[in-house]
Amino acid sequence: EVQLVASGGGVVQPGESLRLSCVTSGFTFSEKYMYWVRQAPGKPLEWVAYCNPGGGYTYYKHSSDEGRFIIFRDNSKDTLYLEMNKLTPEDSGLYSCAIGRYGGNWSTRGQGTQVTVSS
Question: Which regions of the chain are under pLDDT 70?
C-alpha cells in the first residue's frame, strides 16, 4: 500500500520559514519523480515543485517560488522535503506530496499538511 504522509505545516507570520516533510512507503521512492502539490482556498489544486528521482533536477511552477522554496529528497529515508522561506499569505494552503512523472504530471497524492501564513 502506497503511503505519503506529510508533516511540518503550521501557522506562521509573513516572512517566516517552514520545512515540510513527506515520509513515504509502499513503492520504490528512489525511482520516482516526486511532487509537492498545494490546495489553496478557492483555487485549483496545483503542483508547486518537483524533482527527479536522484534529486539533482528541481522544477518550480511559479518563478516567484524559485529562490524561496527548495525541494529536496533523502532517498535513504524515502522522504521528500520542501523548504519554504519568506512566506507570504499567498503561500497558504494544504500541501501534499505526490508521485509523478517528468513535466508536471502527478498522480497519487497523500494526505496533506496545512500551511497558514497570516499576521
Answer: none
